UniProtKB/TrEMBL annotation:
Keywords: ATP-binding, Cytoplasm, Disulfide bond, Methyltransferase, Nucleotide-binding, RNA-binding, Transferase, tRNA processing, tRNA-binding. The keyword NAD does not apply. GO terms for biological process: methylation; tRNA wobble position uridine thiolation. This is tRNA-specific 2-thiouridylase MnmA. The record marks H126, Q336 as: Interaction with tRNA. It is found in: Cytoplasm. The active site is at C101, C197. GO terms for molecular function: ATP binding; methyltransferase activity; tRNA binding; tRNA-uridine 2-sulfurtransferase activity.
Length: 361
């Protein structure tokens, strides 16, 4: 097959490309330029869109002996990922930009262009597994539970998965680093990128304030309605947040307060006790399903990229994914994604559906 390998400049995508070559595919490497003004150097282990990363990707392609290109997706990335991220926070929701990047950039914009150019598949360094049952491609958890990325890929459609390759799905991170060193790839010991790539300094609050400006509001005790403090914008907070609330006085019972809800129109941030964060019902919009939901389905729900799992029952009603948690989860916020899985110890848990959370109870 003709395979386009998305090469970020990190060890995972380099080894994924190497494995595609070793499997006998005709591989071409491509680095996505996602920033209009890429930094010269990475800030520690943050980010993956710098000039240095592009050079690392090119060096890896040279070692593998494959053609290499840089494609400018900065404008599309800004519109589809960065601008949406800002708008979601302004609306009091908590988005996942990595999930949106996979959906809109790597497996929509990139895949569409790859197919138009005659490629059969796009290979990435994601830790997830694919299997085919009755001609339908299914998405499963990776062998490395600690690195599993099926959650941020769960919004991909059957058609997109049919043109995807995840060569690292059966490996652990440690194995990938050893293989990179054995193949002579200089990125073998390169630190992983983390957090949000377009906020390389990690200051999400500062980034949003620069984009949205100050929109003053108040912090209110959910029990008494008392005003406990003031803030410059609901975008500074997320549901479940404990630190940095700017509240001087402790709660009457001495226990910490957490953000319970955000009301962007009034500028109100409601805070209260930890037990009020517990959620047992999730309503999610725009579901992408991999099975036919003829009724309630036993599953495991996941609400964060790493962690946030609970046994559940899911069903699709009137175009929405309803998830009834058998065990409560905390810090579940509108804007996050919920993915539901069928447990399968032998083949890897199967992704049944994914949707964007719109309400909780």
């Amino acid at each position: 097959m003709r395979v386009l390998a998305a090469m970020s400049g990190g060890v995972d995508s380099a080894v994924a490309a190497a494995r595609a070559v070793a499997a006998g595919h005709e591989v071409t490497g491509v680095h996505l330029a996602l920033s209009a003004k890429p930094g010269t150097l990475r800030t520690g282990a943050r980010g993956c869109c710098t000039i240095e990363d592009a050079r690392d990707a090119r060096r890896a392609a040279d070692v593998l002996g494959i053609p290499f290109y840089v494609w400018d997706f900065a404008e599309r990335f800004t519109e589809e990922v960065v601008d949406e991220f800002v708008a979601e926070y302004a609306a009091g929701r908590t988005p996942n930009p990595c999930l949106r990047c996979n959906e809109k950039i790597k497996f929509e914009a990139l895949l569409d262009k790859a197919i138009a150019l005659g490629f059969d598949a796009v290979a990435t360094g994601h830790y997830a597994r694919l299997s085919t049952v009755d001609g339908v491609v299914e998405l499963r958890r990776s062998a490395d539970d600690g690195k599993d990325q099926s959650y941020v890929l769960a919004s991909l459609t059957h058609e997109q998965l049919a043109h995807a390759m995840f060569p690292l799905g059966d490996s652990t991170k440690a194995e990938v680093r050893v293989e990179a060193a054995e193949r002579g790839l200089q990125v073998a010991d390169k630190p992983d990128s983390h957090d949000i790539c377009f906020i390389p300094d990690g200051d999400t609050r500062g980034f949003l304030t620069r984009r949205l400006g100050e929109q003053p509001g108040v912090l209110v005790d959910d029990e008494t309605g008392a005003v406990l403090g003031r803030h410059v914008g609901v975008h500074e907070f997320t549901v479940g947040q404990r630190k940095g609330l700017g509240i001087d006085a402790p709660a009457p019972d001495g226990r910490p307060r957490y953000v319970l809800s955000l009301e962007p129109v009034s500028g109100t941030v409601r805070v209260g006790a930890a037990e009020k964060l517990q959620v047992t019902e999730i309503v999610a919009q725009r579901p992408v399903t991999r099975i036919t939901f003829d009724g309630p389905v036993e599953c495991v729900a996941q609400v964060r990229a790493h962690g946030g799992l609970a046994p559940a029952v899911a069903e699709v009603v009137d175009g929405e994914l309803l998830v009834h948690l058998r065990e409560p989860l905390s810090g579940v916020a509108p804007g996050q994604a919920v993915a539901v899985y069928r447990e399968d110890a032998e083949a890897g848990d199967l992704v049944l559906a994914s949707a964007t959370i719109s309400a909780t109870q």
